[in-house]
């Protein structure tokens, strides 16, 4: 589908974006450099090339792909290999792989590297049974004696940096993030992203920021803190005080796509993003996704799920959701969305900080 809205953001929105983007400070994590200390977290079925591109447009300092199966790559599974595609406009992105076998991961990493990512990331946080059951994801945290060989084998297969994303441990009785980070350091891993929950917690409770701060302060590698950074206030506070080298945002930007930029708004500035700005985000996502979607149906499903997340916090959202789910047509979906966003009387979106949101995922 093509829309009349293809092309750049309207000038007013683009100038807000440019102003705030210019305030970001580039950072180095290990030997890698990023445009800001706020990175997009890997998210399965979400962190595709179009979404990563969109998030870079909206201020993400770097991005990581969704998790990609090493076996799928090695078996040349068409759908898996498709996930390795990187858009030439992407700047600072990593491809995340998952698997339990060092040799299979090394082989797959070598293939993935050819697609041009800046780094290869290993998923060591996925709590999902299907993944954990094979010994991959957060299961890798259980037996640290094998990790040296695991990292070394993968690292020696590639010429670009290797990074890992972990949870703080398997369960409350086996919190071992620091030990894992030390092994990673020995084997030349570049930086470590840490989701501040155990595998046992899945997505319940709160991310343990005391522990993340302790890692940030004392670990021998750059630590990227992750978990529950969903509101601009909490995020801004963390940016000002954290001992972590960088922060990673997953679910937050799904509901507030301007989360990478809002912390850079000064207290005395009257800058905010309007409902119409949110609609522009959808137009842009539609434009990027149209270049990648294999069918109109996939495009509709993608746009619909993002619309539902983006609409959170606006008036009449449940009515909007009902309408959207009943509409099988993309043009009609866009029309309904235009009415919804453009007719909002309150021009500021109000998200509740304590809302729990999407309590399952692969990391
Ligand atoms: C829908 C969904 C999919 C996810 N997929 C992945 C993944 O593919 N790889 C990964 O390492 N983490 C994955 N995660 C975990 C996130 O990267 C992040 O660690 C977690 O959501 C906590 O951060 P947040 O509170 O900012 O969302 C996923 C999370 C969600 C909600």
Provide a descriptive summary of the structure in words.
The strands form 2 sheets. The protein has an 8-stranded parallel beta barrel, surrounded by 5 helices. A two-stranded antiparallel ribbon has the order 1-2. The chain has 2 domains: 13-264, Alpha-Beta Barrel (TIM Barrel), CATH 3.20.20; 275-342. The protein is built from 15 helices and 10 strands. The chain has 363 residues and is α/β, with parallel strands linked by helices. 40% of the residues lie in helices and 15% in strands. Flavin mononucleotide is lined by residues 41-44, 46, 66-67, 96, 123, 125, 165, 195, 226-229, 249-252, 358, 361-363.
Topology:
Layout: H1 11-21, E1 27-29, E2 32-34, E3 38-40, H2 49-57, E4 62-69, H3 70-74, H4 78-82, E5 93-98, H5 102-113, E6 119-124, H6 129-132, H7 147-157, E7 162-169, H8 177-186, E8 191-198, H9 209-218, E9 222-226, H10 232-241, E10 246-249, H11 252-255, H12 275-290, H13 296-311, H14 317-326, H15 330-342
Parallel strand pairs: 3-4, 3-10, 4-5, 5-6, 6-7, 7-8, 8-9, 9-10
Antiparallel strand pairs: 1-2
Helix pairs in contact: 2-12, 5-7, 12-13, 12-15, 13-15
The structure holds flavin mononucleotide (FMN).
Short descriptors:
10 strands; 363 residues; two-stranded antiparallel sheet; TIM Barrel; alpha/beta; single chain; binds flavin mononucleotide; 15 helices; eight-stranded parallel β-barrel; globular
């Amino acid at each position: 589908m093509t829309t009349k809205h293809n092309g750049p953001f309207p000038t007013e929105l683009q100038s807000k974006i440019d102003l705030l983007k210019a305030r970001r400070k580039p950072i180095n994590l290990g030997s890698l450099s990023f445009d800001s200390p706020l990175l997009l977290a890997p998210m399965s079925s979400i962190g595709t090339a179009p979404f990563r591109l969109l998030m870079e447009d909206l201020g993400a300092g770097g991005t990581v792909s969704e998790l990609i199966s090493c076996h799928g790559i090695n078996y040349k599974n068409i759908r898996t290999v498709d996930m390795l595609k990187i858009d030439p406009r992407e700047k600072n992105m990593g491809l995340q792989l998952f698997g339990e076998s060092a040799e299979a991961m090394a082989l797959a990493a070598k293939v993935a590297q050819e697609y041009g990512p800046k780094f290869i990331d290993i998923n060591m946080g996925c709590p999902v049974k299907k993944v954990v059951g094979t010994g991959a994801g957060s299961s890798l945290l259980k037996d640290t004696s094998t990790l040296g060989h695991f990292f070394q084998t993968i690292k020696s297969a590639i010429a670009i940096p290797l990074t890992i994303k972990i949870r703080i441990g398997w369960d409350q009785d086996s919190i071992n993030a620091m030990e894992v980070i030390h092994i990673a350091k020995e084997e030349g891993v570049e930086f470590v992203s840490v989701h501040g929950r155990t595998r046992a917690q899945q997505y319940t409770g709160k991310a343990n920021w005391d522990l993340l701060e302790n890692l940030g302060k004392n670990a021998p590698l750059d630590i990227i803190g992750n978990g529950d950074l969903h509101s601009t206030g909490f995020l801004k506070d963390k940016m000002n005080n954290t001992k972590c080298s960088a922060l990673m945002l997953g679910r937050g930007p799904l509901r507030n796509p301007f989360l990478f930029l809002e912390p850079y708004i000064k207290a005395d500035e009257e800058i905010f993003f309007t409902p119409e700005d949110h609609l522009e985000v959808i137009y842009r996502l539609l434009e990027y996704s149209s270049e990648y979607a294999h069918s109109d149906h996939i495009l509709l499903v993608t746009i619909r799920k993002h619309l539902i997340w983006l609409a959170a916090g606006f008036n009449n959202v449940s009515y909007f959701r009902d309408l959207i789910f009943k509409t099988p047509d993309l043009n009609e979906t866009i029309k309904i969305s235009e009415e919804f966003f453009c007719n909002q009387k309150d021009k500021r979106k109000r998200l509740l900080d304590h809302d729990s949101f999407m309590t399952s995922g692969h990391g």
